Amino acid sequence: MRLSSRAGEGSLGELSAAIHERTEGNPLFVVNVVDYLVEQGSLLDARKIEAPRNILQMIERNLERLTPDEQTVLEAASVAGGEFSAAAIAAALGHPVSEIEACCTRLSRRERFVNKQGSTTWPDRPVTATFRFHHALYQDVIYDRIPDNHRIELHRRIAEREETAYGERVGEIAAELAHHYSRSNKAEKAVEYLGRDAQRAVSRSAFAEALTRARDSRLFLRWRRPPSAATGNSTCLAPWSARQRLSKDGARHRRHRAMSECVISHANRVMTTN
Asked: What single string gives the DSSP state of each residue in the chain?
């Protein structure tokens, strides 16, 4: 009643949807979020709902009850994604896959943070188990506690191992590789795989998705432009010098730009005629 008295039917419906999206319907999280909103004295913008601190503290306490090895595995898992394979975690940590599977299986049986989903096969290795975080908040809290430099390194290791594993079939995981390379400060690689993913989307007539990927690619390219001599902004020098090292003559940069422009043009043309 206290919430409904402060909002009309429309805004209350929007708030309810936002709460459900953020908590994924978890009863404990829903109660905590509603209590938090009431404590604020007024309804917050539904788009800005954050997890109350008591939920985050609860997750942190549960995490601290795990062994250091289990915490390390979960940190790598949070980098791999909401759903992840034991092989990806093994690549991030440099541990045997069997060791990672055993650790995650124990956590799953104790209903701690993750549950077992099934299995998957990488092109260069046999079946590996897959797992999933119980809730997106678990992944978020664990991911945020990883030091930035270590997080970047974990993303890089996972991307390079998956790239090697898939070989000629690397286009199948282009979106995932683009994500990991973008988080590991490998912008040229991120642009390359955003472009590949856009092309794959066009090939299956997913033109809206192709536009999103291609535009993301253009944003990366724009970020990597050289600084204007007139600005004297030294903060731009690092990404620009990195681009020069990766592509001395700018050929790769121009190729990626042309690819993204081509994908956008084709997707726009088809969507306009349909």
From this structure: -TTGGGS-HHHHHHHHHHHHHHHTT-HHHHHHHHHHHHHHTSPPPGGG----HHHHHHHHHHHHTS-HHHHHHHHHHHHH-SEEEHHHHHHHHT--HHHHHHHHHHHHHTT-SEEEEEEEE-TTS-EEEEEEESSHHHHHHHHHTS-HHHHHHHHHHHHHHHHHHHGGGGGGGHHHHHHHHHHTT-HHHHHHHHHHHHHHHHHTT-HHHHHHHHHHHHHHHHHTSPPPTTT--GGGHHHHHHHHHH-TTSHHHHHHHHHHHHHHHHHHHHHHH-
Give domain 60-144's CATH architecture: Orthogonal Bundle (1.10)
Token look-up 């592509």 returns 247
Q: How many angstroms separate the CA atoms of 68 and 103, rounded?
A: 12
pTM for the complete prediction?
A: 0.66
246 or 203, higher pLDDT: 203
pLDDT, tens digit, for every residue of 31-53? 666 666 666 555 555 555 566 67
Domain residue ranges of the chain, discontinuous segments joined by + = 4-50, 60-144, 186-273
Amino acid 213 reads R
User: For residue 54, is pLDDT > 60?
Assistant: yes
